[in-house]
Amino acid sequence: MKLLLTNDDGVNAKGIYTLAKELEKNHEIIIVAPSVERSACSHSITMREPLIVKEVKLNGIKSKAYSVSGTPADCVKVAVNKLTDGKVDMVLSGINNGVNAGIDVLYSGTVSAAIEAAIYKIPSMAVSSEIEGGEDNYEVAAKYASDLIEKIKNKYLKDDVVWNLNVPILNKEKIKGIKICRIGGRTYNSYFEENAIDDGKSFQLRGELNNVQDIDTDVHFIKQGYVTVTPLHYDLTNFKILEEVRKLF
């Protein structure tokens, strides 16, 4: 398969390097990623300035790689339109530095890059690894991503589905298995740290993760030691009340 790799941690991040190292064993890949870290940029795109694209060399990676002076969604756009002529079988975004579970999928540049691929009718996957004490689990996450591609490629590699893969910070032999599940109620107690500056005030966003443990969700199962897989879709329509609201008019 021909795979496009991107992320939101930057083209020189360890996560995308590890993913590329694993996937280029069996696939043709091209890497197009932000020139700098663009975490939590969601689905923003660059409109009022040109995107600067540069070919870069990643030591130990044989595949071509490009940096883009924009967001993860920008990277997918420019890759599909200018660097690959749209000839891509699948887009993989990651491996993200930290899980993208619960409400994080709305903020995540990693997930948004995968969603951008789905908008272009290209199957996609977001891959994220739990981080703890500065330690990562990228090699294990890369292997699960590779295995998931093999499992879905014949029947479930559909252009309107974004596969959201999260891997806990455990050795592979200690992982309990894979759970197919919905996203959970992972939220934050956010606040702003206020400081005075010469011509006004500064507000630095701070916060702590709420310990929400709804069962049958990605948040719950990751904490239990499972890899989680959630099929996502970019259609935000609330179908539960669509017909009811239609009757009002």
From TrEMBL:
Its cofactor is a divalent metal cation; Mg(2+). InterPro entries: SurE, SurE-like_Pase/nucleotidase, SurE-like_sf. One of its GO terms (molecular function) is 3'-nucleotidase activity. Residues 4-189 form the Survival protein SurE-like phosphatase/nucleotidase domain. It catalyses: a ribonucleoside 5'-phosphate + H2O = a ribonucleoside + phosphate. GO terms for cellular component: cytoplasm. Gene3D superfamilies: Survival protein SurE-like phosphatase/nucleotidase. Keywords: Cytoplasm, Hydrolase, Metal-binding, Nucleotide-binding. Pfam families: SurE. A divalent metal cation binds at D8, D9, S39, N96. Its EC number is 3.1.3.5. It comes from the Bacteria. Binds 1 divalent metal cation per subunit. HAMAP family: SurE. Nucleotidase that shows phosphatase activity on nucleoside 5'-monophosphates. PANTHER family: 5'-NUCLEOTIDASE SURE, 5'_3'-NUCLEOTIDASE SURE. This is 5'-nucleotidase SurE. The lineage of its organism: Bacteria, Bacillati, Bacillota, Clostridia, Eubacteriales. The gene is surE.
